[in-house]
Amino acid sequence: MQEAKNGKPEKHYKFVVEFGLHCFTKGPNLHQGKSLDDFDKKLHYSDTRETRIFCFTRYELSKELPTIAQSINQNPCYNTGKGNFFTLKMVDISGREEEYEVYFKVSRERKGLLRLYVESAYTRDANYDSSQPAKRKINFFVIAHNIQANKPIKIQK
Asked: Can you tell me whether residue 93 is helix, strand or coil?
């Protein structure tokens, strides 16, 4: 719920929330040149598009995702500039705090309903060959409003 502000009434958004397999799996390429064949087949996890490796760390962290999704409007969100967004949560892994990067898309579902698709979630480590996108802050309610109204989302520089 978006609270009333500056004379505008409160606004309610209804979401279907979905979590993708990147929330609890890793690509084999994140293991320094290994391929799927280098991993026990019991750890392979597939959908209609790809096969990845089950990741016990990502799986444990993914248990926080329903809570993160429920409170996503209370945390800073950032526009990646590539059609999706991310938010950060600090997590404690083995006694040290790390940024848990949660990537998501918002789309229109059916009348009056939006879809929050959590694409991927992980803590970044040395095996990643890319860096975190620039933090172009965007309010979650701007995302929800623009998607629902079928309006483009401007990318802040």
From this structure: strand
Residue at 69: amino acid letter:
A
125 and 116 in contact (C-beta within 8 Å)?
Answer: no
Helix (H, G, I), strand (E, B) or coil at 139: coil
Answer left, alpha or beta for residue 113, where phi above 0 means left and psi between -120 and 50 means alpha.
beta
CA 135, 139, 144 angle in degrees (round to 5)?
Answer: 120
Q: What is the distance between the alpha carbons of residues 99 and 109, in angstroms, rounded to a whole number?
A: 30
Average pLDDT, the chain: 89
Contacts of residue 7, defined as CB under 8 A and 6 or more positions apart, other chains included, come to none
pLDDT, one tens digit per residue, over 61-101 is 999 999 999 999 999 999 999 999 999 998 887 878 889 99
Rg value, the chain, Cα: 17
Q: What is the pLDDT of residues 24-40, one digit of tens each?
A: 999 887 666 778 888 88
